[in-house]
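Usage

Read records sequentially. Each one opens with the input sequence:
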Amino acid sequence: MNKLIPMPGFVLVEPIKGETEGAWLMSEVNMEKQQKGVVVSCGEEVTNEWNTQIKCPVKEGDVIYHRSWGHETINIDGRELRVVKFLDVCLKVEN
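and closes with the structure output:
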Protein backbone atom coordinates (compact mmCIF):
# COMPACT_ATOMS: atom_id res chain seq x y z
CA MET A 1 0.00 0.00 0.00
CA ASN A 2 1.23 3.51 -0.79
CA LYS A 3 1.93 5.93 2.03
CA LEU A 4 -1.15 8.07 2.69
CA ILE A 5 -0.42 11.65 3.72
CA PRO A 6 -3.33 13.84 4.83
CA MET A 7 -3.55 17.42 3.61
CA PRO A 8 -2.61 20.23 6.03
CA GLY A 9 -4.96 20.39 9.01
CA PHE A 10 -6.04 16.73 8.84
CA VAL A 11 -5.18 13.44 10.58
CA LEU A 12 -5.64 9.95 9.11
CA VAL A 13 -7.15 7.60 11.71
CA GLU A 14 -7.84 3.87 11.68
CA PRO A 15 -10.86 3.02 13.85
CA ILE A 16 -10.36 0.53 16.66
CA LYS A 17 -12.90 -2.22 15.93
CA GLY A 18 -14.54 -4.59 18.36
CA GLU A 19 -14.43 -2.32 21.39
CA THR A 20 -17.57 -1.26 23.16
CA GLU A 21 -15.95 1.46 25.22
CA GLY A 22 -16.33 5.04 24.17
CA ALA A 23 -16.09 8.50 25.58
CA TRP A 24 -18.97 10.88 25.95
CA LEU A 25 -18.47 14.58 25.36
CA MET A 26 -21.03 16.46 27.38
CA SER A 27 -21.93 20.07 26.88
CA GLU A 28 -24.80 22.24 28.00
CA VAL A 29 -26.71 21.54 24.79
CA ASN A 30 -25.98 17.94 23.87
CA MET A 31 -24.14 14.71 24.54
CA GLU A 32 -22.12 13.01 21.82
CA LYS A 33 -20.31 9.66 21.69
CA GLN A 34 -16.73 9.96 20.49
CA GLN A 35 -14.99 7.58 18.08
CA LYS A 36 -11.77 5.81 19.10
CA GLY A 37 -8.92 5.18 16.69
CA VAL A 38 -5.18 5.00 16.05
CA VAL A 39 -3.41 7.80 14.18
CA VAL A 40 -1.94 6.47 10.93
CA SER A 41 -0.41 9.76 9.72
CA CYS A 42 -0.65 13.52 10.23
CA GLY A 43 -0.89 16.36 7.78
CA GLU A 44 1.30 19.45 7.96
CA GLU A 45 0.41 22.44 10.10
CA VAL A 46 -2.32 24.73 8.87
CA THR A 47 -2.90 28.48 9.14
CA ASN A 48 -6.27 29.52 10.55
CA GLU A 49 -8.30 32.62 9.74
CA TRP A 50 -6.41 34.65 12.39
CA ASN A 51 -3.10 33.80 10.68
CA THR A 52 -2.07 31.47 13.53
CA GLN A 53 -0.15 28.26 12.71
CA ILE A 54 -1.80 25.14 14.14
CA LYS A 55 0.41 22.05 14.40
CA CYS A 56 -0.89 18.52 14.49
CA PRO A 57 -1.83 17.79 18.12
CA VAL A 58 -1.03 14.06 17.84
CA LYS A 59 1.55 11.78 16.23
CA GLU A 60 1.53 8.49 14.37
CA GLY A 61 0.56 5.61 16.65
CA ASP A 62 -1.34 7.74 19.19
CA VAL A 63 -4.72 6.42 20.35
CA ILE A 64 -7.29 9.20 20.18
CA TYR A 65 -10.98 9.96 20.46
CA HIS A 66 -12.47 12.20 17.80
CA ARG A 67 -15.90 13.62 17.11
CA SER A 68 -18.30 11.13 15.56
CA TRP A 69 -19.40 13.60 12.86
CA GLY A 70 -17.49 15.74 10.39
CA HIS A 71 -14.95 13.17 9.20
CA GLU A 72 -14.64 11.45 5.84
CA THR A 73 -14.47 7.65 5.75
CA ILE A 74 -12.42 6.01 3.01
CA ASN A 75 -11.74 2.34 2.24
CA ILE A 76 -8.34 1.43 0.84
CA ASP A 77 -7.30 -2.19 0.29
CA GLY A 78 -10.13 -3.36 2.59
CA ARG A 79 -9.03 -1.03 5.37
CA GLU A 80 -11.44 1.57 6.76
CA LEU A 81 -9.73 4.90 7.44
CA ARG A 82 -11.05 8.26 8.59
CA VAL A 83 -9.82 11.69 7.60
CA VAL A 84 -10.32 13.92 10.66
CA LYS A 85 -9.67 17.65 11.14
CA PHE A 86 -7.10 18.62 13.80
CA LEU A 87 -9.86 20.49 15.65
CA ASP A 88 -12.08 17.38 15.81
CA VAL A 89 -9.53 15.43 17.88
CA CYS A 90 -10.97 15.56 21.41
CA LEU A 91 -8.75 13.30 23.53
CA LYS A 92 -5.40 11.55 23.37
CA VAL A 93 -4.89 8.39 25.44
CA GLU A 94 -1.63 8.27 27.40
CA ASN A 95 -0.45 5.27 29.41
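Summary fields computed downstream for this record:
- The two ends are 30 Å apart (CA to CA).
- Confidence is low (pLDDT under 50) at residues 23-29.
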